[in-house]
Design a protein that fits this description.
By secondary structure, the protein is an alpha+beta fold. The protein has a 6-stranded antiparallel sheet with strand order 2-1-4-5-8-9. A 6-stranded mixed sheet has the order 10-14-15-3-16-17, with helices on both faces. Helix 12 runs antiparallel to helix 16. The mean pLDDT is about 75.
């Protein structure tokens, strides 16, 4: 890789555009990059790194890259870096621009433009640049692939930081391992260690899970076996757990089978005893039942003897009741005839009471004849009744005609009066409609003018307010601008004063015996002193913060002034130059006129409705007057016809009424008389019939009672029983017969008679013996079932544990194998005597290569005195593998690199850095690194050693390399002619090249 040209714009301390011609500097092979502290020497190297990888080393890169922009840059200048280089035989140009916060092109405020990148390749045949990519990711991947290094490796190999390698020399094994791991990318070996550790933990977890399952089965077997099984005191993962569980399970199964045999014998004996006791209890129970049955039969027979007289009385009463039941129909018939006769006599008396006294002695035939004569007279009045009804309807119709005539006269008069005033009314209503229509048209015209007038008035009022606000904002912006200018001047003055006295500030941090951060010298003969009025960092930062706050306030005031001016212009464009008062008067007059015409226009609908209703009323009244005239003509003819018919009907009715008030009254008298006579005749005949039936029923009843054996009908009636009494008496007789038959059958049983002759049965003793035998049988069955379940459960659990033991064997073998490999890789195994991790082992091989490559240059720098060697000895309790010693050829001793002096540490670290660069280059695929940078540390060397170091660096040109030295040492400016000087100033830093053609 060879650098050709670097262009920097608004990057870091460089406010403008600066260019570095590396081709000119590389012509001398060795060039010096120097400048005062804070000028930006490191920023040149940062720009190279940013161009290649899109980021800078260390904490100078934030998440968005906004801190890369120079504070000295003009607001319109965008930060950017462009680098031309040749790598792998290809000439490339890389352009990168970080995110840029700039002012918005429209409106106030700022916006952030995204980062941009570009990659071009030079086509030598065509003599032009060819664009390759504008993607950040693609460019980064392309450069990393071409260089074979990531950013960390590039910063260690190309930008050799001597302070880091000095710390590397003095660091312990862990710190060296972290640095070498980043450079040689041994992450895959660390991942291998991690994977082995994870596999070990996974295998261990599987073994523990299998052991836990096996131990859980063992605990369940122990619970099933009770005291017959003892488990060893082992935990999951302990060796020998499977064998111990298998042995304990075999003992438990044997013991359980013995217990099952004993329980089976006990169950057979208990069942035999229980059967004997049950048989004895059954026999005793049967004897007790027979003895009790015979004794009960004797008691029931004695009770029947005591109730024999009562049973005989019930039997005789039932016999008389059955005889009386033959007389019951005659009794019922006589009672029904008597009731009918009484009802008929009452009805006859009530009907005769309503007749005139002349009919008191008339029989049923006479009453019927009188009723027939009254009905015949009633038939002759039917024609007169219809004539009377017609006369009534005729009078009603005649009265209706008179009412219609009076109503029509009123309608005629009212219509005539209303129609006389129609023309003036119609004219007034039409005038109202016309006026409302004119008002509606005017309201629409005014509505169009209202909104523009209102908007113009509102804009005029805003114009007046914005004019006042603009003056206030202008004054505020002027005041804040003056304050910001004064704050900037004060800050720049303090900054210049601090830069003038920066030597005293740096001298305050010097410590005797410690190297200077600027020149690297350990002796400080004349450090600068602070004079009166010295400005420190805090004062400068406070002034800067005050300036930034004042500038922010001024920017905000300018933005507010712009906003107010834009609002004022918009309001003026809307309102014009007319005074606000005049516009307000115009709007008021317009609103008043609009309200007045809108009120008139709102009456349009009502006026139209009134006119429509008036026209409808005119039509209705005209039609009504015509209808009343037609009805009057037809009414006169109808009235004459009704008068003629009325005279004829009145003559006919006068003859038919007689002395009654009307035909209807005469007909009502005849109808009532006919009804009373007919009812009296019917009731008289019914009384005669019921009297005869009662007489016949008395005769039949006397005959039936005599045949049934009763002296009188009343005696037969007394012997009858109702249904309830009959059922109760029959139930007592049936119960007596059933009880008598049952007692006779019980006393006749031979078994009961024999049992009564034996001693009384002891049922309680037999029952107690049977219960005890049953209890013993149940206990024996429970013990047998428990023993059988125990054997079955132990067999099942033993089979499952045997399967678990077989499955556990390959898991434990795998765990033993993986645990041994993981222990070896992690350096914790006893087989790993040096406790060296796998990654440390690989890094130790790399470190051995680096030490060999560094020794070639270290021997030359130290005149053959020092040699770097790798050591894999352990330090204290730590792990071995990454030790680094120096062999002193003058004393023949080997000692730690931490014992080197300051100058020795510098050229040893320089040799180590160069050796590391060679090894990393070979590791990256042999990419040639033609440009290197070495940062500081030369101030700690004496003149002879400095010459030897420069000779070594100069020898790098033999491989067509160019080496840039970054240093403050003044002697190097005399020794190295090609120089790149970084000059700082108030407006930003600049670069100058010297000693180049």
């Amino acid at each position: 890789m060879r650098l050709h040209r670097l262009d920097i714009t608004a990057f870091g301390p460089f406010g403008g555009e600066q260019s570095v011609d590396f081709d000119a500097l590389s012509g001398a092979g060795l060039f010096l990059l120097h400048g005062p502290t804070g000028a930006g020497k490191t920023s040149v190297l940062d720009a190279v790194c940013y161009a290649l990888y899109g980021s800078v080393p260390g904490a100078r890169q934030n998440a968005q890259g906004l801190t890369l922009r120079s504070d000295h840059a003009d607001a319109a200048t965008r930060t950017g870096v462009r680098l031309e280089l040749t790598v792998a035989g290809r000439r490339l140009e890389i352009t990168r621009q970080p995110p840029w916060e700039r002012s918005k092109k429209r409106g106030a405020g700022t916006t952030v433009e995204k980062a941009q990148s570009g990659l071009r390749e030079y086509d030598a045949a065509a003599g032009t640049w060819q664009a390759m990519s504008r993607s950040h990711q693609e460019i980064g991947e392309e450069i990393t692939q071409l260089l074979g290094m990531n950013r960390e490796q590039f910063c260690q190999v190309v930008l050799l930081p001597q302070g880091d390698f000095a710390r590397f020399l003095r660091a312990d094994a862990e710190a060296r391992g972290r640095l070498l791991g980043r450079l040689f990318d041994t992450h895959r070996f660390a991942e291998a260690e991690k994977r082995l550790a994870e596999r070990r933990r996974s295998a261990e977890a599987r073994v523990r899970d299998a052991d836990a399952a096996l131990l859980a089965d063992a605990h369940r077997m122990q619970q099933a076996a009770g005291d017959a099984m003892e488990l060893p005191e082992l935990q999951p993962g302990d060796p020998g757990l499977a064998e111990a569980v298998t042995s304990a399970a075999a003992v438990a199964r044997s013991t359980a089978r013995e217990q099952l045999t004993v329980a089976h014998c006990g169950l057979a004996a208990a069942e035999t005893a229980h059967a004997d006791a049950a048989r004895t209890l059954a026999e005793t129970g049967e004897l007790h039942r027979l003895q009790r049955r015979f004794a009960d039969a004797r008691e029931r027979a004695a009770l029947l003897e005591e109730r024999a007289a009562e049973h005989e009385a019930d039997r005789l009463r039932m016999e008389r009741a059955r005889k009386a039941e033959t007389v019951a129909p005659a009794l019922e018939l006589r009672d029904a005839a008597d009731a009918d006769h009484r009802r008929a006599a009452v009805a006859e008396s009530r009907a005769r009471a309503l007749l005139p006294a002349s009919y008191a002695d008339s029989g049923p035939a006479g009453l019927a004849t009188a009723a027939r004569r009254a009905a015949e007279e009633l038939g002759t009045l039917e024609s007169a009744r219809r004539a009377e009804q017609r006369l009534s309807a005729l009078l009603t119709e005649r009265a209706g005609l008179d009412r219609q005539e009076r109503a029509d006269d009123d309608v005629q008069q009212e219509a005539a009066d209303w129609l006389a005033a129609w023309e003036p009314t119609r004219t007034a209503l039409q005038a109202r409609v016309d006026d409302a229509q004119d008002a509606t048209a005017r309201a629409e015209q005014l509505a169009v003018l209202r909104d523009p007038a209102r908007r113009r008035l509102a804009a005029a009022r805003q114009r007046d307010e914005f004019a006042h606000d603009t003056d206030a904002a202008r004054q505020q912006a002027l005041r804040s601008g003056e304050s910001a200018a004064l704050a900037r001047t004060h800050w720049l003055d303090l900054k210049e004063q601090r830069l003038t006295g920066i030597a005293a500030e740096l001298a305050a941090g010097l410590t005797a015996g410690e190297p200077c951060a600027v020149c690297g010298a350990t002796e400080h003969p004349a450090p600068a002193r602070r004079d009166a009025g010295h400005v420190d960092r805090a004062a400068e930062e406070a002034a800067l913060a005050a300036f930034q706050r004042a500038d922010e306030r001024h920017t905000e005031d300018e933005r507010r002034l712009g906003v107010v001016r834009e609002a004022l212009a918009a309001a003026t464009a809307e309102a014009g130059d007319a005074p606000t008062d005049r516009l307000a008067v115009e709007v008021t007059q317009l609103e008043e006129e609009f309200a007045e015409v809108r009120g008139r226009a709102s009456a349009l609908h009502a006026a139209r409705e009134d006119l429509r209703r008036a026209e409808q009323e005119h039509e209705r009244r005209t039609a009504s007057r015509q209808e009343t005239a037609v009805r009057a003509a037809s009414r006169t003819a109808r009235r004459d016809a009704l008068d003629r018919e009325r005279a004829l009907l009145e003559t006919e009715l006068a003859q038919a009424r007689g002395d009654a008030g009307s035909v209807a009254a005469r007909a009502a008298q005849l109808e009532r008389r006919t009804a009373l006579l007919t009812d009296a005749a019917d009731t008289a005949r019914a009384a005669e019939d019921t009297a005869q039936r009662l007489k016949d029923a008395d005769a039949r009843l006397s005959d039936a009672a005599f045949r049934a054996g009763f002296e009188t009908p009343q005696a037969a009636a007394d012997a009858l029983l109702d249904d309830t009494a009959h059922r109760r008496l029959q139930h007592r007789l049936d119960a007596w017969q059933s009880e008598q038959a049952a007692v006779r059958a019980a006393l006749a049983e031979a078994d009961a008679a024999r049992a009564a002759g034996q001693p009384p049965a002891d049922l309680d003793t037999a029952r107690a013996a049977a219960e005890a035998a049953a209890r013993r049988a149940r206990d024996a069955a429970s013990a047998h079932d428990a023993a059988a379940r125990r054997c079955a459960e132990l067999d099942l659990l033993s089979a499952r544990s045997a399967v678990g033991v077989r499955q556990l064997a390959p898991l434990r073998e795998d765990y033993d194998r993986v645990a041994r490999l993981a222990g070896l890789a992690a350096g914790t195994s006893s087989d790993n005597e040096r406790r060296m991790r796998l990654e440390s082992y690989v890094l130790a091989a790399r470190l051995e290569q680096v030490a060999a490559a560094a020794t070639v240059r270290l021997r030359r720098m130290s005149s053959g005195r020092y040699t770097l060697v790798h050591s894999d000895d352990r330090t204290g309790r730590g792990r071995s593998g990454l030790g680094l010693h120096v062999v002193d050829a003058w004393t023949g001793s080997e000692r730690d690199t931490a014992t080197l002096s300051g100058g020795e540490t510098f050229f040893a670290s320089l040799a180590l850095a160069l050796g590391l660069a060679d090894v990393v280059t070979d590791e990256a695929g042999g990419v040639r690194l033609d440009t290197l940078f070495i940062d500081e540390g030369f101030g700690s060397l004496d003149e002879q050693t400095l010459d030897e170091v420069l000779d070594v660096l100069d020898s790098l040109r033999e491989r067509d390399r160019s080496v840039g030295i970054v240093s403050h040492v003044a002697d190097l400016r005399r020794r190295v002619h090609a120089q790149l000087e970084v000059v700082k100033g108030r407006s930003g830093s600049t670069v100058r090249q010297r000693g180049v053609g």
